[in-house]
Amino acid sequence: xxxxxxxxxxxxxxxxxxxxxxxxxxxxxxxxxxxxxxxxxxxxxxxxxxxxxxxxxxxxxxxxxxxxxxxxxxxxxxxxxxxxxxxxxxxxxxxxxxxxxxxxxxxxxxxxxxxxxxxxxxxxxxxxxxxxxxxxxxxxxxxxxxxxxxxxxxxxxxxxxxxxxxxxxxxxxxxxxxxxxxxxxxxxxxxxxxxxxxxxxxxxxxxxxxxxxxxxxxxxxxxxxxxxxxxxxxxxxxxxxxxxxxxxxxxxxxxxxxxxxxxxxxxxxxxxxxxxxxxxxxxxxxxxxxxxxxxxxxxxxxxxxxxxxxxxxxxxxxxxxxxxxxxxxxxxxxxxxxxxxxxxxxxxxxxxxxxxxxxxxxxxxxxxxxxxxxxxxxxxxxxxxxxxxxxxxxxxxxxxxxxxxxxxxxxxxxxxxxxxxxxxxxxxxxxxxxxxxxxxxxxxxxxxxxxxxx
Length: 454
Prior knowledge:
Radius of gyration: 27 Å
């Protein structure tokens, strides 16, 4: 069993007791959204945490509420219970200032049945008065409560001592980060209710993420380590992105920013579209933004099982995509049904195909042969009375592929000709769905340099 499985700490408690603030404190990153509104966290989120020399995996969970199992709050509670089962120790957080409430007693009863090591901590102990009030948590029957201030970082030394009692010194090595830079990260993005979380649940094979008919269930970007055919990767579920004009609440604005941040650090973006209403303006805006960020793109046409005249519809979607997303012409479109688990393998095959293209490096020799051929096919335009000449081309970076072209008049090259160059390069090297970047530089005049040297 690997380290991430044997050192896992789940943080549980009522809504708004400071679980996400403590999660961010332990991981050292602002991974979890924090807001005064209760119930911001809905799915459980994972991150690599540490205190001094002790490293462990941290699970941030939704606020526990005793409600109907079919309600959104009830389904959130079930996700918290799943996180408790996945962990090997639990940090039960209560609010020292608010005192004990009935839901605290319910959580304590749940944890006793779980038969996992439980560490009790009273958060928001910034004053002597609150530290005194924290003693009320003795009444939960889970031992002495640790006074903490997640926002200020107070009390982590006491938490360290409790964790060391649970995890001896000879524990395995530190867990690998779920957001490790060398590991493929796939951001699943799209409008609300397109089926992003359902898709990820089908891929990983269990109900890892909260789903339901309510729009906007996902708020945080949730990173989920996964393995596909022996390859380790990370799936990132993101909040649904509505049109900017419709996003008015601060919490939704934070969710959208978090989704965009997650996509920025991914290599591949799977843009999930509802095939029954596909290619609305917002779908295209999201796909275009992913292209501008330089992500490799695959479009997942979800709910394809509900589409009539599928082949004709698919052709019309392809035609519209080619017009609107010319910067990533040929982007793969994969019909899927996340609910029925149809098209999953084909989707992942396309993800890995475009990822490989996204990493492609070309030799300077083959690029300059292309440059010669493309100018013969379509002569560059004139700049005034003088022709524009492309003289030399080389690749400077991959991920996505970026190229420098040296020419005599870089400022006079029209955008239309560079679009032609981009499409010609895409066709010549079979690179559908991958953003391409060109940088034009003025070539040196060797005769001018010789004159200066005299």
